[in-house]
Predict the 3D structure of the following.
Amino acid sequence: MRPLLELKGITFSYPGGEPVLKGIDFQLDFGEKAGLWGCNGAGKTTLFHVIMGLERPSAGEILFEGRPVTGRKDLTALRRKVGFLFQDADDQLFCPTLLEDVAFGPLNLGLSPDEARSKAIATLDLLDMANLADRPPYSLSGGQKKLGALATILAMDPIALILDEPTGGLDEDARAILEQLLIATDAALLVASHDKDFIEKVTSKGYLLSGGRLFNLPRDDRQALPKEA
Ligand SMILES: Nc1ncnc2c1ncn2[C@@H]1O[C@H](COP(=O)(O)OP(=O)(O)OP(=O)(O)O)[C@@H](O)[C@H]1O
Ligand SMILES: [Mg+2]
């Protein structure tokens, strides 16, 4: 079966800089759950931004559901189906209230305002944060913002989740909710995290990004990772 997401020879540099990604090949199957390790500055966020079309690679190809992502239409289709959690939740929340932020995606997908509101409340409830629905996002704590940002993507029923450091700032209860949710979901998952226990629990496959290249990480080798990786 064709993979859900495929990267072929992806190369990327920021203007005037050395290449951050050097010919990355990667596949994510439908429902597959993969973890991404790498030191600070290894290029994990950059790789996610390239996948989501926020940065344009200088070489290589991205295929989504078997089709090359070339134009705006392909990118819109990908973004409707792939939920991306930014490393910084402030990049994801921009409405006057959390409820409006979470309802924004479902509204864009064509739900009526009432349906979108119900969907948003149900999603916030799933994360045990319905009580925060009417709060302005800027007034939320760091962990609450993170979960709120996660709610904005879950509300769109994505078939894949790309999560950039989702556990940052989460307390034990919030982390447990997130773990259960990621273990239970049928959506494919690609998650970057420095939190080894978390990645072990929610993924079945691992990759290491180092020196601009992506390496398979057999499960047994993960224990041997340096602490900062
Ligand atoms: N907008 C930018 N302009 C120039 N260089 C950048 C930009 N964003 C990131 N970089 C550089 O690209 C490299 C990869 O950064 P990136 O944020 O992708 O790393 P990361 O693996 O996500 O790190 P972390 O674990 O700290 O989140 C770093 O050397 C970083 O300094
Ligand atoms: Mg990062």
Observations:
- The beta strands are 5-13, 19-28, 33-37, 59-64, 67-68, 82-85, 160-164, 188-192, 205-210, 213-217.
- The mean pLDDT is 94.
- The longest helix spans residues 113-126.
- Residues 5-212 form a domain with the Rossmann fold fold (CATH 3.40.50.300).
